[in-house]
Amino acid sequence: xxxxxxxxxxxxxxxxxxxxxxxxxxxxxxxxxxxxxxxxxxxxxxxxxxxxxxxxxxxxxxxxxxxxxxxxxxxxxxxxxxxxxxxxxxxxxxxxxxxxxxxxxxxxxxxxxxxxxxxxxxxxxxxxxxxxxxxxxxxxxxxxxxxxxxxxxxxxxxxxxxxxxxxxxxxxxxxxxxxxxxxxxxxxxxxxxxxxxxxxxxxxxxxxxxxxxxxxxxxxxxxxxxxxxxxxxxxxxxxxxxxxxxxxxxxxxxxxxxxxxxxxxxxxxxxxxxxxxxxxxxxxxxxxxxxxxxxxxxxxxxxxxxxxxxxxxxxxxxxxxxxxxxxxxxxxxxxxxxxxxxxxxxxxxxxxxxxxxxxxxxxxxxxxxxxxxxxxxxxxxxxxxxxxxxxxxxxxxxxxxxxxxxxxxxxxxxxxxxxxxxxxxxxxxxxxxxxxxxxxxxxxxxxxxxxxxxxxxxxxxxxxxxxxxxxxxxxxxxxxxxxxxxxxxxxxxxxxxxxxxxxxxxxxxxxxxxxxxxxxxxxxxxxxxxxxxxxxxxxxxxxxxxxxxxxxxxxxxxxxxxxxxxxxxxxxxxxxxxxxxxxxxxxxxxxxxxxxxxxxxxxxxxxxxxxxxxxxxxxxxxxxxxxxxxxxxxxxxxxxxxxxxxxxxxxxxxxxxxxxxxxxxxxxxxxxxxxxxxxxxxx
Length: 683
Fold this sequence. Notes:
Helices cover 66% and strands 2% of the residues.
């Protein structure tokens, strides 16, 4: 039996070979430990051999079994934990063994890699920047540092680091590739493609100089191809990007990370409605080994986890979706996305009550971070016809009044449930919130909300509040023509002509106003009357017809230019000459002249035509109602009384007098209804 000295000598020969024979060294080490179980040198040799043979679990067992070598082998212990993806424990060991930077280069490099895996990209970049060692390639340090800085949102600084290193040492393919990634992070996809082309050429030159075969070179360039496809996808060149992704996957890249990125992006490009089965087949590349998945960035892991769930959901593979959901919850523990995926699963299984309960539970537990959950819940409530519940859900969103889309949805829902006060209250509150906002869009939104609130108040017969809101806008500095014009119209409708004239001074002078035929404008409508069963082509034809009619009238007006004249003789035998662009019938002219209304504004001009006292149909209808109001025979005493009551001359005189004295007149509410014409009988 060999002595310990002989065994150590044999071990020395095996570990000093080129390369060291760690597999053959392990049996020798076991014999030594059988004789001397606590020999520190033998334990260290066993630990190093297991690490080189990638038996990290066994190496960790050795460290756990003999804690005494932990302090002597701090780097080996930290490295074993790093390879077992115990990154938090790794950082603790490094901090305990080398609390200061620059003491041990190996520890500093391992610290930087651990910080990268933990998602602390800014600290990682600083750590790489602090490493100084003559034995370490500065180009490699610059590449690693730039990768961390890009993930930390410092893309411009990362590009400058690579440019500075390239200026001193010459640019390599890895430097050019990472510089392209920095350009992508800055959003310049076109320039990124140019940089990737240059990086591809450098890589080919380096590989040919190293003697690599063409097949190996093409296989290594797949990553460049996938990155260029991503740039094309971001530029909107979907067809070219899809073609590049498919060609990259056909090459069956050996790098699982590249294959996973290509499969994921291809599914995202196609969506759920195009080649879903082919996307599912290619998405097998997303099922990465744990070791490979740990090399991904946090953002990549999250995107892969989300797309795994979505793909299974679209394929109706609910069990696979639930399995993928477990990983998604691990990656996005504080996010609302796992709850949304669960809700989608329940909805597809027609379990709507459970779906609503799940969303409501999450929204209650996370009131400030559940924006998408609450929007989804509101949509589900609307699908179930629960409009009031949907309003409550939308109003519970923390920043609802600062988002125009949500405000519009709430107002529309209030209108659907016939609750105009609620809609007005929402608009007023949103305007108040936006008044405190300092963004560029805020003033326009405030104005829009105020105007909409005024319109709603007008439609709900609350003219006083509408007038108050518009006056507040104008007095607050809003001199917009549409706002001032609307205020003037509203003041005229309420018979406050003096105030209307005051605000009308703010309006610009209309050029060539004398050429406007007011009577034509009053009787002319620009609306396209939609009929049943009209398609888009018919509607466009109606619009073209309307435009042609407007053009024809414009030409007639321009050709007429001169005002028409007419002479009428009053009851007193006095001849009166009048002129206008479009004269009414002689009877109407005589009537207006006798009342003294010719050339003066109509006191009832703000009322709709069917509500004016001189509307023939309305007069005829009122005469008939008054004649039969007492229940007597037609033509009785009631008819004379109705005739006296509806005498137009007296009514117009009273209206003009009231307008001259400034006395407000309250118009009676008109009863509207359908005016269906009866069929004419044959003679």
